[in-house]
Amino acid sequence: MKIFHTATDEEIKNGEVTDVYFIRTIEILRAKGIKKRVVMEVKANSLPNGYEWALLVGVEEVSRLLEGVPVDVWSMEEGEIFKGGEPVMVLEGEYTQFGHYETAILGMLCQASGVATKSARCKMAAGDKIILSFGARRMHPSLAPMIDRAAYIGGCDGISVIKSAQMLGLKPSGTMPHSLILIMGEPVRAFLAFDEVMPEDVKRVCLVDTLYDEKQEAIAAAEALGKRLFGVRLDTPESRRGNIKEILKEVRWELDLRGYDYVKIYLSGGVDEKEIEETKELVDAFGVGTAISNAPTINFAMDIVEVEGKPFAKRGKLAGKKQVWACRECGNRKITRFDAPPPICCQREMEPLLKPLLKEGKLVRELYSPEEIRSRVLTRLKSMKS
Ligand code: PCP
């Protein structure tokens, strides 16, 4: 028996996590002996908050979900940048064989893509500064590895949850919680105990907002640990925050004045793109929680665009199977009929972004490691900036 209110892999794979109206549709089609082949496309007409682009993540999970299901799937790569209105995935098969997977397919793509997109936006705002994913505690723990994977692919440099890190082949990143300081009774006692007990490969980053003024605690940490202190973290509570930029300036100044210019400054607690932009000149690493783990989802829809080989779509949707093309040289994009010849841009053929993923439920594409996907994402984000 399961003890948590979550579905198992098996239940999802069996198509049990589905809205009932899909099952009813399939029941009716079967009762009527209707077996029609359809083409469906996954597309978001608009992106959250007027974003100009988003990152597609969740493709690997969808490929696992549909493995063994008699359906052909073309998809953009995991980590691909897409724009509103572009189909990111195309599915073709007999509707009753895969229609009931729509709920799970969209759920896998909408949430992970939203998280990855926010992570990428935070990373872009931070420039060469570090972003750590600290938001597992805001979501159901069963989702932490999925959220952290999307955050990492989007650009986060590290993630804090042990299980997520294990699944990603990373070392978890973290500092120390307030509870350590409160239980030890005094900040410096906690800092020294941390240094004494933790293995050498754990960075000494002391939390300096628990009992006294941040600059006072930061100096105390530097005096206690000397060269062994890697950084200090400010998680100053909202009620004490005032002007966080001024607090950061003071901490940096006081540390530098005493020769502790090597000590990095971490900032966490309520950090989002705006806070990153405003403080990045004073901060070396940001711990971002809610903003990334509770990122706005990408509202993909999955719609029929062809029935029995004929273009057919509901109002407000363009009928027919389509291809999306990109020019890697100038960033130009184009949507054409699926079988149209490659458009030319910058004197060469544009790249088709919807590539075969599954053929009759068989995986026909290599799946890359999160590290490889992330590194491609970062290269693309850089080229978009320049
Ligand atoms: C930090 C902060 C939030 C976490 C990280 C993410 O925790 O206070 O709890 O923040 P966000 O969702 O606001 O972005 P800690 O300072 O480690 O909190 P504590 O030690 O009190 O557990």
Describe this protein's structure.
It is built from 15 helices and 20 strands. The chain is of the alpha/beta class. A seven-stranded antiparallel sheet has the order 13-12-1-5-3-19-20. Strands 7-6-11-10-9-8 form a six-stranded parallel sheet. A three-stranded antiparallel sheet has the order 15-14-18, with no helix packed on it. The chain folds into two domains: about 10-115 and about 295-380, nicotinate phosphoribosyltransferase, CATH 3.20.140.10; about 175-290, Aldolase class I (TIM Barrel, Alpha-Beta Barrel). The longest helix is centred in the first third of the chain and has 25 residues, at about 100-125. The chain has helices spanning about 10-15, 20-30, 60-65, 95-100, 100-125, 145-155, 160-170, 180-185, 185-195, 215-225, 240, 245-255, 275-280, 290-295, 370-385; strands at about 35-45, 55, 70-75, 80, 85-95, 130-135, 160, 205, 230-235, 265-270, 285-290, 300-305, 310, 320-325, 335, 345, 350, 350, 355-360, 360-365. Ligand PCP binds next to strand 11 and helix 14.
For the largest sheet, list the strands in their spatial order: 13-12-1-5-3-19-20
CATH architecture of the largest domain: Alpha-Beta Barrel
Our Rg estimate from Cα atoms comes to: 24 Å
From the spread of the alpha carbons, the general shape counts as elongated
Give the uncertain stretches in residue-range form: none
Oligomer: single chain
Helix content: 25-40%
Question: Between the first and last Cα atoms, what is the distance in angstroms?
Answer: 53 Å
The proportion of residues in beta strands is: 15-25%
CATH class of the largest domain: Alpha Beta
Number of domains: 2
How many beta-strand runs?
Answer: 20
